[in-house]
Design brief:
The chain has helices spanning 17-30, 63-67; strands spanning 9-13, 34-38, 49-54, 69-79, 86-93, 99-107. The chain is of the alpha/beta class. The protein has a single domain, classed as 3-Layer(aba) Sandwich (Rossmann fold). It has a 6-stranded mixed sheet with strand order 2-1-3-4-5-6. The longest helix has 14 residues, at 17-30. The chain is globular and about 35 Å long.
């Protein structure tokens, strides 16, 4: 469980710059997390994140997002083609670098664009 006083490194991806700005304000007000919000698929030079939260669906999980996770870090992402069945997934990076992937539930999100 994440406590409100916990400081985490979080990357949230939003489909537009306006939504990214709103998400950063909302998440920052709700907790003491260190928040970075982008409207793209993330850059591979930033790593060691506790959580990556994606609010738009790519067809496949982008490897650069997994690479940004520190051991124990989680990626929460909707995955699937536009206008078709998508699945909310949680990926957790283990201490040995392997990734455990869990399908959570069917969802419908806008597509993640570059």
């Amino acid at each position: 469980m994440i406590r409100p006083s916990t400081v985490l490194a979080l990357l949230a991806l939003a489909p537009t710059s306006a939504l990214a700005g709103e998400a950063k304000i909302t998440i920052s007000l709700a907790s003491s997390m260190f928040v970075t919000v982008q409207n793209q698929s993330g850059s591979s030079n930033a790593n060691e994140r506790d959580l990556v939260l994606v609010t738009a669906a790519p067809e496949h999980v982008p490897q650069p997002l997994i690479e940004q996770l520190k051991p124990g870090g989680r990626l929460v992402i909707p995955v699937g083609p536009q206008r078709a069945s998508q699945t909310l997934k949680v990926l957790e990076k283990r201490s040995d670098g392997t990734v455990r992937e869990t399908d959570v539930l069917p969802v419908a999100f806008v597509p993640l664009t570059r």
